[in-house]
């Protein structure tokens, strides 16, 4: 740290000029690369039955799972004109376009199947153009149209996240600035963390854009908000320590002590955060992998800015950090320190009472977790007011819902050219009829479903009578292989309640377990189910990485065997309590009218595991800051009680300010129209509130007091 401190003091202006150059370069690069990055298609593990079905549909049937759209038209309409316009304008992107108008439904649906060779991003970006065509046609024909389907849903989510991210960043910066003013009692000091946060976001977006890193709407918003919060918090730690040390009047000493304590703490906190988040890379899930990459990048940028840029800027403005003076006088930090000293003294005097009562409170908040259920979103990924959602709701109300996201079955024979054999057709017919009678099924598309008046023998006679004259391009038969497979599409009545689809899938597996033919179950719903299994299938490995990695980092920093174990225990409690609150809000509907939250009768599958890894790392920031201060005092006095009181009195107001910044930043995310973002941010807000108010300022000092000298057991003596 001495070398870095020397460079900062001697090359202060050069460092600031270098970072200014990077800012200008970033702005130029963003102007030169205006296009958004290609969004990664959300996918789960590349093993299992659902993935095999996806691959078979792609290679044998020329069907790309999820690469489709649907135009919903109110009433019965002649759709030839609109079909011709879409085919003419988007011919290179289309596989087929089908009009599903029939007497069973009040509305008209046009199904668009895109070319499987086109990327997810390419077909998704056609959404606004398709909507422009159908909107013009709808006005001309005095009707109402919606464009929905997987591509449209993901497009609406992406656009909403882009707009939402810009608004969130602006409001979050404003909230952070106001909190920093009250924390520092100075506008100049409050501006420095804001400048650092803006630079962090600018560098992050530039690197992502220029390198062409893939992205998705969840990781984009979460990384942006987390980066902003961390950059501000790290800057808060640096500036507050520098202001404390610069009172001695020596520039080098002030920078050195700041880096030796706050800088070192930030470095280890950042590594701990990266270690915690990196465990999300183990499951083969595109969203979590994207979260890991984006979060690791933004954390690294935050560390570099805090250790190099911020001390240089603080040194340049050292004589102005308390301006305007009236604010410094108005907000008396000595009174704040005296309050925390008095508060902590009471805790260390009655540690058992405080520890037991706070533990019981957290356990009671965590109890609902025992009944938590996981919800796998398929349709409701976009805002509730998006056109894609309105279109789906119109389809669902008219009985078309399952046609957009059917359950796909692949029935396979070992013999070539066997799809029209008597045994194979008999098997298809029996399964089709059973599924038609299932109360959760709205319809079935198969080789034996197109004529409701046909019996099994009629279908067998029909196919056998045509013989060689049977069409070779039947979309339900594999035309690239041995013609020994067929696809059967099962349409659930209501996709909004995925338990219906899961019930159908379970019924299919039970009915086909003794079949002499191979029956594979797939489709988007099955893929989502596999995604949940993949997410939670590596919990032991993920926890091992988090625990071992963080234990080593805390041990190296604090040089204690016991403190890292205590830190793990303390971090679990607020997270479990926040899971309990999420269960009450999203599963049982508590406060849903006040918070404007959807009631899914479950918690979104990706939320608990993502929330755990992010919050665990964030909580360690405060843990490391408090422990560093207490340990610093302990090495001076060797008195446990005095160390805890002095350490928390010095860091209490800092922890409160940092907590309010995090809460303010993620509160902005809580008003997001995107359901998953709202859920993650609400969980983070509740976890931070619990962590800052109960764990850090009550449980940590009381538990450390109970442990006494055992806190600092180490493999080597000081």
Structure description:
The chain has 26 helices and 10 strands. Helix content is 66%, strand content 7%. It has helices at residues 2-10, 12-32, 49-61, 80-90, 120-124, 127-140, 150-184, 187-211, 217-245, 251-278, 286-316, 325-330, 333-349, 351-366, 387-397, 401-404, 422-436, 456-466, 498-512, 524-536, 539-558, 562-587, 592-595, 606-637, 640-670, 675-707, and strands at 68-73, 94-99, 108-114, 145-148, 374-375, 407-412, 441-445, 485-492, 518-522, 603-604. It has a 4-stranded antiparallel beta sheet with strand order 2-3-1-4. A 4-stranded antiparallel beta sheet has the order 7-8-6-9, sandwiched between helices. The protein has a two-stranded parallel ribbon with strand order 5-10. The mean pLDDT is 83.
Strand order of the largest sheet: 2-3-1-4
Q: What is the helix fraction of residues, given as a range?
A: 55-70%
Q: Provide the β-strand percentage band.
A: 5-15%
Backbone shape? elongated
Number of helices: 26
Task: Report the major sheet.
Answer: 4 strands, antiparallel
Number-wise, the strands total 10
Structural class: alpha+beta
Please tell me how large the radius of gyration is.
30 Å
Compute the separation of the termini in Å: 20 Å
Give the rounded overall mean pLDDT: 83
pLDDT < 50 runs, ≥5 residues: none
Q: Descriptors for this entry?
A:
718 residues, alpha+beta, four-stranded antiparallel beta sheet, 26 helices, 10 strands, 7% strand
């Amino acid at each position: 740290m001495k070398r870095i401190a020397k460079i900062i003091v001697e090359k202060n202006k050069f460092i600031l000029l270098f970072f200014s150059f990077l800012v200008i370069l970033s702005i130029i690069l963003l102007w030169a690369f205006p296009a958004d990055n290609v969004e990664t298609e959300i996918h789960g593990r590349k093993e299992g039955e659902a993935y095999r079905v996806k691959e078979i549909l792609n290679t044998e049937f020329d069907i790309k799972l999820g690469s489709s759209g649907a135009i919903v038209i109110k009433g019965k309409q002649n759709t030839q004109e609109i079909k011709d316009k879409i085919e003419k304008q988007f011919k290179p992107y289309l596989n087929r376009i089908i009009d599903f108008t029939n007497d069973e439904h009040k509305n008209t649906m046009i199904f668009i199947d895109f070319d499987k060779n086109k990327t997810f991003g390419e077909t998704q970006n056609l959404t606004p153009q398709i909507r422009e065509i159908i909107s013009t046609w709808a006005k001309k024909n005095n009707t109402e149209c919606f464009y929905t389907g997987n591509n449209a849903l993901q497009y609406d989510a992406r656009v909403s996240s882009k707009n939402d991210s810009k608004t969130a960043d602006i409001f979050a910066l404003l909230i952070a600035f106001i909190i920093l003013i009250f924390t520092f009692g100075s506008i100049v000091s409050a501006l420095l963390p804001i400048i650092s946060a803006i630079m962090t976001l600018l560098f992050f977006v530039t690197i992502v854009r220029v390198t062409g890193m893939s992205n998705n709407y969840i990781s984009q918003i979460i990384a942006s908000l987390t980066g902003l919060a961390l950059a501000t918090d790290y800057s808060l730690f640096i500036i507050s320590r520098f202001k404390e040390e610069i009172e001695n009047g020596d520039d080098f000493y002030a920078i050195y002590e700041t880096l030796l304590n706050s800088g070192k703490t930030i470095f280890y906190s950042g590594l701990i955060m990266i270690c915690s988040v990196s465990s999300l890379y183990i499951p083969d899930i595109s969203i979590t992998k994207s979260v890991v990459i984006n979060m690791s990048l933004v954390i690294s940028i935050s560390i570099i800015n805090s250790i190099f840029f911020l001390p240089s800027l603080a040194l340049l403005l050292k004589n102005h950090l308390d301006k305007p003076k009236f604010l410094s006088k108005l907000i008396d930090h000595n009174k704040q320190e005296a309050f925390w000293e008095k508060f902590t003294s009471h805790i260390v005097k009655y540690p058992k009472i405080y520890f037991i009562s706070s533990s019981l409170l957290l356990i009671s908040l965590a109890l609902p977790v025992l009944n938590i259920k996981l919800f796998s979103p398929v349709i409701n990924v976009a805002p509730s007011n998006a056109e894609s959602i309105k279109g789906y709701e119109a389809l669902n109300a008219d009985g078309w819902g399952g046609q957009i996201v059917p359950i796909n079955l692949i029935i396979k024979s070992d013999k070539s050219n066997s799809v029209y054999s008597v045994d194979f057709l008999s098997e298809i017919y029996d399964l089709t009829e059973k599924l038609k009678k299932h109360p959760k099924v709205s319809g079935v598309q198969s080789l034996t479903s197109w004529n409701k008046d046909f019996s099994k023998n009629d279908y067998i006679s029909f196919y056998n009578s045509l013989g060689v004259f049977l069409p070779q391009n039947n979309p339900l038969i594999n035309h690239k292989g041995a013609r020994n497979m067929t696809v059967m599409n099962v349409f659930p009545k209501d996709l909004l309640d995925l338990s219906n689809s899961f019930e159908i899938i379970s019924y299919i597996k039970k009915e086909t377990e003794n079949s002499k033919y191979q029956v594979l179950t797939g489709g988007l719903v099955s893929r989502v189910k596999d995604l949940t299994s993949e997410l939670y299938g590596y919990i032991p490995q993920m926890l091992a990485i988090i625990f071992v990695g963080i234990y080593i980092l805390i041990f190296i920093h604090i040089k204690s065997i016991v403190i890292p174990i205590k830190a793990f225990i303390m971090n679990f409690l607020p997270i479990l309590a926040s899971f309990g609150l999420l269960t009450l809000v999203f599963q049982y509907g508590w406060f849903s009218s006040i918070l404007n939250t959807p009631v899914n009768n479950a918690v979104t599958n990706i939320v608990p595991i993502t929330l755990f890894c992010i919050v665990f790392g964030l909580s360690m920031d405060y843990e490391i800051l408090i422990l560093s201060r207490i340990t610093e005092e302990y090495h001076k006095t060797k008195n446990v009680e005095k160390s805890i009181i002095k350490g928390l009195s010095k860091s209490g107001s800092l922890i409160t300010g940092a907590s309010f910044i995090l809460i303010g930043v993620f509160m902005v995310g809580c008003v997001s129209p995107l359901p998953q973002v709202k859920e993650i941010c609400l969980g983070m807000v509740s976890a931070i509130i619990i962590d800052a108010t109960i764990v850090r300022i009550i449980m940590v000092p009381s538990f450390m007091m109970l442990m006494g000298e055992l806190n600092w057991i180490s493999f080597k003596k000081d």
